[in-house]
Write a structure and sequence with these properties.
It is a single chain. This protein is 47% helix and 21% strand. It is built from ten helices and eight strands. The protein has a five-stranded mixed beta sheet, sandwiched between helices. Strands 5-8-6 form a three-stranded mixed beta sheet. Strand 2, helix 2 and strand 3 form a beta-alpha-beta unit. The mean pLDDT is 94.
Amino acid sequence: MSAPISVVVPVLGAEGLGPCLAALAEGVLEGAVCEVILADAGLDPRVSEIAEAVGAALVTAEKGRGRQLAAGAEAARGAWLLVVHGDTVLGEGWARAALAHLHNAPRTAGYARLAFDDTAVLARLTAGWANLRSALFGLPYGDQGLLISAALYREIGGYRPLPLMEDVDLVRRLGRARLKPLATLATTSAERYRREGWLRRGGRNLGTLALYLAGVSPERLLRRYERR
């Protein structure tokens, strides 16, 4: 049986890609990953150099995570898609957890538990809230990764070309019943939280989610987001 998973990584630049890609090597060794696709916005020439160096496919799309992810998924050949952000590192054992999900829950999508690369108390509390939100409301963010069959991805309409909230838009169409936690961890960068402050950044994210769920368009949310 050939490796079933195409990994799609949306990227804007080369920073942070090294640890992300290194963690994905486990999937190749475990026979889980057939290809890694970097969905690039074309802003940093180093991305193409990295893709060539590690043997990843490179797909270029207009800047915007929704557009980039849609382009990467369209190019994928695997029966399953695993979306991993470029500043996120999957924990040891993730490939076995992914393969177990494929066999045990093939009609659902999987997501990892969130952690930050920071030991601060507020980092643990913020990650704890994200994991609770995912479990109670079926709203994991893209930082937690998303494992979904290509068939189910197409069935729900895939990623839409949204400038913001493309991850929430997709999992809302999936619905809580078709989302399952994976027995693995996704550690993501806390750089923006450290730069802006944990409470300020967390409040900003929560406010953006609330406005989106209330019906404010992603385009308006992006303008609000960029003004701050």
